[in-house]
Amino acid sequence: MVQYCCKRHQRDDWPQHKPECKAFRALGLRATFYRDEDMLAAFPLQSHRAARSSTPPPVPAGASCPICGKGAGQAPLTRTPCCQQLVCDTNARYQIGSFSRDICPRSLQRYTLCG
């Protein structure tokens, strides 16, 4: 749905807007404005993490870190809070200001879309 500041602007925009309106009408759709309260009642806000269980799934045998390739026998593995991806649990070795890419959880947060 489009709102205009005045009738003149609505008339000026009608040639461009008419095909869009026609397509919506053909699909049987019509635009309506909703109040924020109505939308929040229908679709309440919630954290994407709220739906997850509080206990992460166990580390499967033979699992390895996708960043450095180390297996469970070479480095302790942990799950990331964002996507439950298995990565090396090497945060304790990180030194502030070193910008080391050897710390897998930091690398996941800084260099991927996941973090």
From TrEMBL:
InterPro entries: Znf_MYND (IPR002893). Residues 2-21 form the MYND-type domain. GO terms for molecular function: zinc ion binding. Pfam families: zf-MYND. Keywords: Metal-binding, Zinc, Zinc-finger. It comes from the Eukaryota. This is MYND-type domain-containing protein. It comes from Tetradesmus obliquus. The lineage of its organism: Eukaryota, Viridiplantae, Chlorophyta, core chlorophytes, Chlorophyceae.
